[in-house]
Structure formats: structure tokens, C-alpha cells
Design a protein that fits this description.
- Belongs to the GTP-binding elongation factor family. LepA subfamily.
- One of its GO terms (cellular component) is plasma membrane.
- With about 600 residues, this protein is of the alpha+beta class.
- It is about 25% helix and about 35% strand.
- It binds guanosine-5'-diphosphate and magnesium ion (MG).
- The site of guanosine-5'-diphosphate (GDP) has 18 residues, from helix 1.
Length: about 600
């Protein structure tokens, strides 16, 4: 296809505003699949994505659209994830396109990720087409929301497209808007090859698949290519595109988005943002790259059964083939034995990886408290990065400790503003800005990342009955008065429960956790003391009285099979426990204990 007949676009929206549903409608109309193969949210192909109703990996589909001008256009659609943890996936998809469809739910209006995504689209020089979705809903107020988009974002909405992705109303108008309003890509077919590496993943049948956007030159089957940054070189086995089915072609031309396969063994060779060039006739310089993807939340993952350690290592390496954004490194814990310290983009990312390990690889895991990355300067001048609270050096050995701060944008209806401001203050937030758009307030805060990793998002949602939305970016490191709180169970420190907190809050958090653990640890046949300590000083103490737990007593004799079932259930329950000295702590305690009230 010549450049004039290509349009590359992303769909951006706040979560649940209807991106995936719109993508479904577009694929139904112009994609390469039969009606009987169509199912909802066809791009959300991973099971977890489908169950949670979120898009994790950005996907791309080529559509063929015969426009009203009689010409047929090649439309390359990129679906993007909406959750803050995956903001990076959004940014790399946008770099491969010239325009964006900005989907806004006409019954909800502009939300935090609407804004965050628009800013990224503007940074990428995108032409933005506003699309008001869900106009079939009785609660839809398209005129009011159009005004809000103008006020808050400053985007002209006079020719916004009104649609219902659910019923299919207005889909044709979306397609026409893409053709008439988005610029076509530019590129020189005769120049040396420069293709942007947008994404890569591992497919168990096909090996590593790379998603590319060809900027200049032509990417051909059989060609010898080189990654300009990693230096790796490969022979291209095949190129093609998704409809969303895989279609092989001989070449990808400038302006096109598609995939390549090259018998690549490791995704590590395929850095997102790298430039792919021709080995024989290389480009003189790479395309401008992307920001690197840095894990910001770390936690320990340990097998419940120590014998599963090698299995866990194997599973992590397989998962990493698919998701280069998480890191892992072997670690040992006095309490939990051998495991891995893993880094994630955020808490949702952590939960997804944990769930995939348990589900797809059949592993029982203990997850320790998530922690941010602290920077420490030791008194001997050495700089260290601290990923694990248990490893925090003694106070006397530290010259200073710094923690990461974020800049958070929260959008919330007026009536919930008070409690939201209070929450931010409790979490050591510093207000930067407060503005109104109609009856919605937009607040910008600086907050320590440490204060949001556990439960900030949950709290925000519950305080605002689900109406607040939230987005953040990493801001900078700042020196802080931080201490390590150690939790002791029957006088033994449990390293996996240690956490770092600001001095002003450490004691009360320590107390909270002891109270919470008292409920989370089942009573056992002897008394258990639960204590919190800061630098050797006990700041809280709870005690759990003894109990003789006899499951069979409940059965009043009689039913033998019921007894056996109960026994098995109890055994099953044991699998999820960890022994500390003589005390058993259930897996759920490790995370639950740290959620603040
Ligand atoms: P995404 O998170 O932006 O990908 O949103 P989804 O496409 O998953 O849609 C979120 C929810 O809104 C789903 O339950 C959809 O069925 C629903 N939805 C999407 N578009 C429409 C629409 O036009 N009208 C109505 N009534 N519901 C819609
Ligand atoms: Mg989706």
C-alpha cells in the first residue's frame, strides 16, 4: 500500500470507557475474521486479561476499510492498556502511530487516565479525534462532556464523533474520521532500513515475535537485520501482520506496522525502543528511543513448598520471555528460605505476575510485603539501592536515606474532595494544585511512592465510592527520616514482614500490624506473642491465646467421608502456611498485614 492509503492510530481512554469494545467493532467491520470466530474483547487474548476485563499487552491489528471516497485504506490499530501500571506500554504504542482516537465515556466524562493519555499523545505529535462513547446509555450527556473536554483538555470537540461501541452506532463515522482527519505516515522506501521495535513477546510455538513500525526502507523476509542498540543480528524468517490472525507477507513497507520472526531465542536481544536496520546497508543513526522501563515496586516471591524452588525459577524465566518489564533475582530469607526478589511496574503488575505463576505454572507462592527502591548513602561513602526492607543497614551506618516521590493527579467529584485531601495528607502528600472543571475537582499532589504502593488506590476508590480516578508519574528522590520496623513472632524476627516507614508513622503502623496479625494468625496450641520493634525497642505487643484446634470434634461421629474431607481440607490449608519457629503463619498474612486501615 502506498503511504497515502495508510493510517496508523491508537485508541486511548480511561479504563472501562470502551476501548476494547470499540476495537471489537472495528475488527468486526474491517478485520480478517469470520463472524463466527468473533468474540467479545478479541484483543484481550490472555485469560487473565479476559477475566479481569483489562488489556495488559498492547495489541495491533491491520484493517482494510473501503472509504466513502471509493479508495481502500490500510488502517493499523493499536489497542493500549488503560491502567497506570502500564503507562509505558501506552507510550511505546503511541510512538508507532500518527494519531489517536480519544474515547471518553459520555456518561462519565474526563478521568485521570484520559488526561495522562492525551498528554502522551500530544507529546508524540498526534492528531487526536475525540470520540464520545456509550451514547446509548440514558445517563449519557454528550453535550456536557464535550464542553468538559474543551475546558479540561483544551481540545476542539466541534466534530467529535458520537458512538455506541456496544450497539455499533457511529462506527462508520469513526472510520471516516480516521481516513479524513489523521495524517498519513511519511517515510522513504529507498533509504536504509529503520524500523522501530515496538514490542516483543514469546510464543510457545513460534518463538520470539517482534512488533515493528517501519519508518524508512523495507523490511523483507530473508533479510539480514541488526538491532542497533543491542548489536544482535538475525536472519528474518518471516514478516507479516495481524488481522488479528497472523498473515505472512513478503515485506513491510515504510509507514507499516507488523511483526517479524527470526528464530530469536531471548527477548533480551529485543529491547523495546531499539532500531532495527539492514546488516549490509545500515542506517547511520538509530531512531529516537523510548524511556527505559524501570520497575518501581519490589517484593519477595517464595514457594510454599521449598522443593518447588527450581520450578519457580523456570517459570519466572518463561514469564520474563513474555514480559521484559519485570525483573527477578534469587534471594534467601531466614524465614522463608530460597526465593526471588522481583521488581514490577506497580501493584497490579505484581498481582498479575503472581496470579499467572499460580495459575499457569501451578505454583503455591508466598508474596512478601511490596517495597519501593530506597537510595542509601553509607557513612563510608558507598551508595546502595535497597530493594528489600529486611536488608536496611543499621542507622549508625547510614549517612542518609532517600525515597522516591511521585506526582499524582486525582480527579474527583466535589463532594468527596474533603476526605481525599485528608487521605493525601495522612500519606505525607504535598498539594501542588487544585482546580475545578464543573463539579469535578482536579488535585495534583506530590506523594512518597512508599505511601501508595499498598492500598492507596483501594482507599481512594472506597472513599469516593468509585468516582475518583488516579494517575501518577515518578517524580524524584528525596531525603527522608525513615526507619525499619521489625515484626517478631514469639521473639523471632520475621524478615518477610519487616517494612520501612516514616519516623512519624512507624509506631502507629507497627501497632496496627500487630493487631491485624492477631486476627490473621490462627490460634495455635500455645500462646503467641506478636511484637513490633524499631531499632531494638519494642513499640507494640499483642498476644494470641492458646487453642486446641480439633476439626473432627465438629463431626459428631457418623459420617466418615465427611471427616476425611475435613482432614484433607485442613492439610490443604497447611500447605499455604509457613512455619516460624513453632508458629504457623498463613500466606494471606504477609500482604494483608500491611494494608493500612
Ligand atoms: P476498556 O477498559 O476501555 O477496554 O473498556 P471495555 O471495552 O472493556 O468496556 C468497559 C465496559 O463498558 C464493558 O462492560 C462494555 O460492555 C461497556 N461498554 C463499552 N462500550 C459501550 C457502549 O457504547 N454502551 C454501553 N452501554 N456500554 C458499553
Ligand atoms: Mg480493554
Amino acid at each position: 500500500t502506498d503511504l497515502k492509503h495508510i493510517r496508523n492510530f491508537a485508541i486511548i481512554a480511561h479504563i472501562d470507557h470502551g476501548k476494547s469494545t470499540l476495537a471489537d467493532r472495528l475488527i468486526q467491520k474491517c478485520g480478517g475474521i469470520e463472524e463466527r470466530e468473533m468474540r467479545d474483547q478479541i484483543l484481550d487474548s490472555m485469560d487473565i486479561e479476559r477475566e479481569r476485563g483489562i488489556t495488559i499487552k498492547a495489541q495491533t491489528v491491520r484493517l482494510a476499510y473501503k472509504a466513502k471516497d471509493g479508495e481502500t485504506y490500510e488502517l493499523n490499530l493499536m489497542d493500549t492498556p488503560g491502567h497506570v501500571d502500564f503507562a509505558y506500554e501506552v507510550s511505546r504504542s503511541l510512538a508507532a502511530c500518527e494519531g489517536s482516537l480519544l474515547v471518553v465515556d459520555a456518561s462519565q466524562g474526563v478521568e485521570a487516565q484520559t488526561l495522562a493519555n492525551v498528554y502522551q499523545a500530544i507529546e508524540n505529535n498526534h492528531e487526536i479525534v475525540p470520540v464520545l462513547n456509550k451514547i446509548d446509555l440514558p445517563a449519557a450527556e454528550p453535550e456536557r462532556i464535550k464542553q468538559q473536554i474543551e475546558d479540561v483538555i483544551g481540545l476542539d470537540t466541534s466534530n467529535a464523533v458520537m458512538i455506541s461501541a456496544k450497539t455499533g452506532l457511529g462506527i462508520e463515522d469513526v472510520l471516516e474520521a480516521l481516513v479524513t482527519r489523521l495524517p498519513s505516515p511519511q517515510g522513504d522506501a529507498d533509504a536504509p532500513l529503520q524500523a522501530l521495535l515496538v514490542d516483543s513477546w514469546y510464543d510457545s510455538y513460534l518463538g520470539v515475535i517482534i512488533l515493528v513500525r517501519v519508518k524508512h526502507g523495507i523490511l523483507r523476509k530473508g533479510q539480514k537485520i541488526r538491532m542497533m542498540n543491542t548489536g544482535a543480528s538475525y536472519q528474518v524468517d518471516g514478516v507479516g501482520y495481524f488481522t488479528p490472525k497472523m498473515v505472512q507477507v513478503d515485506a513491510l513497507n515504510p509507514g507499516e506496522i507488523g511483526f517479524l520472526q527470526a528464530s530469536i531465542k531471548a527477548v533480551a536481544d529485543c529491547e523495546v525502543g531499539d532500531t532495527i536496520t539492514d546488516e549490509k546497508r545500515p542506517a547511520d543513526k538509530p531512531l529516537p528511543g523510548f524511556k527505559p522501563n524501570v520497575p518501581v515496586v519490589f517484593c519477595g516471591l517464595f514457594p510454599v513448598d521449598a522443593a518447588d524452588f527450581e520450578d519457580l525459577r523456570d517459570s519466572l524465566s518463561k514469564l520474563r520471555l513474555n514480559d521484559a518489564s519485570f525483573e527477578y533475582e534469587a534471594e534467601t530469607s531466614a524465614a522463608l528460605g530460597f526465593g526471588f526478589r522481583c521488581g514490577f511496574l506497580g501493584l497490579l503488575h505484581l498481582e498479575i505476575i503472581q496470579e499467572r505463576l499460580e495459575r499457569e505454572f501451578n505454583l503455591d507462592l508466598i508474596t512478601t510485603a511490596p517495597s519501593v527502591v530506597y537510595r542509601i548513602e553509607l557513612t563510608n561513602g558507598e551508595q546502595v539501592q535497597l530493594h528489600n526492607p529486611a536488608d536496611m543497614p543499621e542507622v549508625t551506618k547510614m549517612a542518609k536515606i532517600e525515597e522516591p516521590w511521585i506526582k499524582a493527579t486525582i480527579m474527583v467529584p466535589d463532594e468527596f474532595l474533603g476526605p481525599i485531601l485528608q487521605l493525601c495528607t495522612e500519606r505525607r502528600g504535598v498539594q501542588l494544585d487544585l482546580t475545578y472543571a464543573g463539579n469535578r475537582a482536579m488535585v495534583v499532589y506530590r506523594l512518597p511512592l512508599n505511601e501508595i504502593v499498598f492500598d492507596f488506590y483501594d482507599r481512594l476508590k472506597s472513599i469516593s465510592r468509585g468516582y475518583a480516578s488516579f494517575d501518577y508519574e515518578i517524580d524524584s528522590y528525596q531525603e527522608s527520616d525513615l526507619v525499619k520496623v521489625t515484626i517478631l513472632v514469639n521473639a523471632e524476627p520475621v524478615d518477610a514482614l519487616a517494612f520501612i516507614a516514616h519516623k512519624g508513622q512507624a509506631e502507629s503502623r507497627g501497632r496496627q500490624i500487630c493487631t491485624r496479625l492477631k486476627d490473621l494468625i490462627p490460634r495455635q496450641m500455645f500462646q503467641i506473642a506478636i511484637q513490633a520493634a524499631i531499632g531494638g525497642r519494642i513499640v507494640a505487643r499483642e498476644s494470641l491465646s492458646a487453642l486446641r484446634k480439633d476439626v473432627l470434634a465438629k463431626c459428631y461421629g457418623g459420617d466418615v467421608s465427611r471427616k476425611r474431607k475435613l482432614l484433607e481440607k485442613q492439610k490443604e490449608g497447611k500447605k499455604r502456611m509457613r512455619q516460624f519457629g513453632k508458629v504457623e503463619i498463613p500466606q494471606s498474612a504477609f500482604l494483608a498485614a500491611l494494608k493500612m486501615g
